[in-house]
Amino acid sequence: MKKSISSSIVAALLLSTPLVAFAEPVTSKFNLSVGGFVKLDYAYNSENLGNSGGLTPGNGAIPLSSSAAGKQEQSIFTARQSRLWFKASGPDFMGAKTSSLIEADFYGDPALASESPQMRMRLAYGALDWKNTQVLFGQNWDIFGPFIASTVDFRSGATTGAPNNPRVPQVRVTQKIDLNSDNAITLVAGLQDPNQDGNNNNAPANYGAAVNAAGQIMFSSKILGVAPGYFGLPMKPLTVGVFGLYGNSKTAANKTVDSYGGGLYAFVPVLKSSDGKSRAMTMSLEGQVYEAANMAFNTATATTLYDAKAANPSEAKGYGVGAQVIFYPTQELGITAGYGRRGAINYSDYRSYFPAAPAAQVDPGFQKSTTQFYANASYDLNAAVRVMAEYQNMETDYAYTAAANTPDAKGIANIFRVAAFYFF
Q: Does 16 map to a domain?
């Protein structure tokens, strides 16, 4: 009897432990805040885009229309794009405000079933902010390519002229130079992880990569007022500038191969906000163009290297262009339309290493170009709930395929998405 009573007491204490643990609020020695959003996506794809069909392929390659996947439709739900972040602000350092951010979503392993996704680190950085200077270290967005396509598609145009998606370990310094009360120049310089060493698409094994150096020079002006940017969330002034990246690595044959790219960016408030905050009757135009080489790690190029002879690879070169218009007829309703394209530059070089006979090919062909058109509408039911609908057309133009000696084969997908957000 005593043993039974003792066991019951122990069991009761164990069951009460979670309640005891949360009886007092969890606190941090610094000012800590939490936020993020819940996102449910529905997608209909005219082709089967695989386990991650809630978004377009990460390499931009739409399945050939003649393939099995190209003949299948896909209709799926996913909530993996939901996001959680923690922000903290700490003690000052030499006049600088200090802060940190950790952000995660649930796309860690898209091969898993929808009910068991893995958490994935998106951002994790610390920052020191003076009046016009910031030092940031940790994992943040790639410095190359500031344009982000405002799509329901989680890829945000990365494979079609907006190579913004890689989040990489880095250290960067941002310096703002005020020319006067309305105009400023912002300089960004950083060193970041050489992802071409571990995230190559169809490239020979590399080693000995050097860190990438990247930077931006942007001029901003309040002369045109401000208008909504990405997802209608930030209000941005006129901004124009340049950006670039350089790095290198060595192949197995001890040949040094460069990674590099550069481009132009612009954001123009076409219809400015009436008070700097309201979105009603505002419109913005945003876009960028670039050229790059050996930069498939951030999808600026479709592949990294090309050469049928692995001992003598060369940089795969490409270009990208992207543009979008964001229009808010009312504070709650936003309409976006855009275009993006990524293409290969060195066609003749590719063709010399992708001969006509399929048996001689070292790769199933190359992407001549990947293009998208998109249009979406969003409506804010209140400060927390947003609904969106999107149409997207994706097309990949191939030079050759391994299945048959077929020049200029294509993969085309028509995609319809509906999404619901709850921001917190």
A: no
- Per residue in 286-343, pLDDT (tens digit) is 999 999 998 988 899 988 877 645 566 778 899 999 999 999 999 999 999 999 999 9
Average pLDDT, the chain: 85
Answer whether 93's CB lies under 8 Å from 126's CB.
Answer: no
For residue 260, what are the CA distances in angstroms to 74, 160, 188, 298, 404? 37, 18, 17, 12, 34
CA distances from 138 to 81, 141, 212, 271, 331 (A): 22, 10, 15, 37, 35
**pLDDT tens digits along 19-32:** 334 345 566 788 99
Structural domains of the chain, count:
1
**27 assigned to some structural domain:** no
Q: Which amino acid is residue 185, in one-letter code?
A: I
| DSSP string for 291-302 | EEES-GGGTSSS
**What are 382's two structure tokens?**
């209140």
How many of the other CB atoms lie within 10 Å of CB of 264?
12
* Domain carrying residue 44: 36-423
The CATH number that applies at residue 133 is 2.40.160.10
CB atoms within 10 A of CB 408: 10
